Amino acid sequence: DGFSATKLFNQGYSYTYDDVIFLPHYIDFPTDAVNLSTKLSTNINLSVPCVASPMDTVTESSMAVAMASLGGIGIIHSNNTAVEQAALIRSAKSHRIPYVSTDIPFVNPNDCILDSSVFDTFPCVFVTENGCQKDRKLLGVVDKLVWNSLSDKEARVSGYMKKNVVTLPNTSSFNDVAGYLAANDLDLVPLVSENGELVDVVSGKDVERINGFPKLGLPTVGKGGEFLVGASIGTRESDKERLKQLVDAGADVIVIDSSQGNSIYQIEMIKYAKKMFPSIDVIGGNVVTMYQAQNLIQAGVDGLRVGMGSGSICTTQEVCAVGRGQATAVYKVASIASQSGIPIIADGGISNSGHIVKALTLGASTVMMGSFLAGSTEAPGVYEFQGGRKVKKYRGMGSLEAMTKGSDARYLGDTAKMKIAQGVVGAVADKGSVLKFIPYTMQAVKQGFQDLGADSLQAAHELLRSGTLRLEARTGAAQIEGGVHGLVSYEKKAF
Ligand code: XMP
């Protein structure tokens, strides 16, 4: 019944996720017995197979922290200066719990607080050495009640701020912080680094909110309990210096970001990175064919990123006439990479949990997502309203707008002077926190695995390879039938 993967994917068609469907197999275990733990690359283990894409509207430190706290990982984008990218890595590394406060109010010791609007978001204002987000040594706190009782509002805050602030080290665990707030009946506590810099502020409400999120796998942490963080680089000569700065900042894995990875520039960069930093995993790509994959494997990659033109914001297939349907690309690259034990990342085109089940079963070890994460609280940028809907901006790194900021290296290589867009700028709907919707999505993925009779990624790969798992291509009508149809209206709410 149905086809084996070998037969289905060798008929000359380029299939994407929606083009194929698995036939259900046999269930002999409960959903919760499904183990989604996996490898990002040779030496990096994840308990959850999710990776946040190195895009400037997806992954900066807040996303990297949230993804690692869930058991996945985030790759910090490089559409910035090396110094800025390194600072994002350092910031992610300085946290032990997902970001709680993004709008902490700061003032300088020499400032005066003339009106109460500064207390709009917090019941107090933090006085830091230079009064801004960077390099912010905590000097004191001004309580709203204290400020209210001041007779001279033009006094400098250094004159009346509270200097002995109770703080906790930024290396405290979530449970330590929550326990401390409860035991001391405090509303909030600042977390500070070894050098006395204010890293975060945790309030009782934050504790309640975080406790309310469903629990997932073990967080992705290093030996010292710090979150693991990835970072992308390009293949230009200047990326060698960037690479050094990222490694110095603590990057745990490097992703070489290129839309067509099988190039002399990338192969040289892989060799250079592996020679200079042998203990850091290097992920190459993007590739969609066995030939491309083989070349990068030979160059020494520890992981491969698969996908060309399948991303929601991509126009590469239209503009350049190259690429591959993502289901075929993942299956083909996995069939060669698995022979060398190189994990692959299915990058782009994920818009629902079914796509994740398909990517992982067809041979990927993780999925990399852009649009799926871009509407979350943890994505960079602020929410806007469009036609009454709350949205966040999401743009392709090959869009003219992003390339103007510097990401043209991914799409042009070294020499091209005329920029042609291979991506678009758009917006995605608000999805709330990844801390909530990723656990629900993973529960759906586990149900898919259960239907296939696979209790782990390895089991799914084996079922596929052995031909036990059967597939079929879906006709256009079958795809329509597989979605909601025939209703005048409906509400799509999954959890
Ligand atoms: P999704 O579907 O998750 O895709 O939004 C994210 C992936 O798309 C790739 N990417 C691009 N591809 N033009 C392209 O052809 C672009 O401008 C562009 N920007 C990102 C990238 O692989 C990302 O992870």
Automatic annotation (TrEMBL):
Cell compartments where the protein resides: Cytoplasm
Record SMART domains: IMPDH
UniProt entry tagged with the keyword Cell inner membrane: no
Gene3D superfamilies xref list: Aldolase class I (3.20.20.70)
Necessary cofactors: K(+)
UniProt KW keywords: CBS domain, Cytoplasm, GMP biosynthesis, Metal-binding, NAD, Oxidoreductase, Potassium, Purine biosynthesis
Quaternary data: Homotetramer.
Family note: Belongs to the IMPDH/GMPR family.
Active site (UniProt): 314, 410
Source species of the chain: Helianthus annuus
PROSITE patterns hit by this protein: CBS, IMP_DH_GMP_RED
Record-listed NAD(+) binding positions: 257-259, 307-309
EC number, as in UniProt: 1.1.1.205
Domain CBS: start-end pairs: 161-220
Domain of life: Eukaryota
Broad EC category: oxidoreductase
Catalytic activity: IMP + NAD(+) + H2O = XMP + NADH + H(+)
Binding positions (IMP): 312, 347-349, 370-371, 394-398, 422
Name of this protein: Inosine-5'-monophosphate dehydrogenase
GO terms under biological process: GMP biosynthetic process; GTP biosynthetic process
Gene name of the encoded protein: IMDH2
GO molecular function annotations of the record: IMP dehydrogenase activity; metal ion binding; nucleotide binding
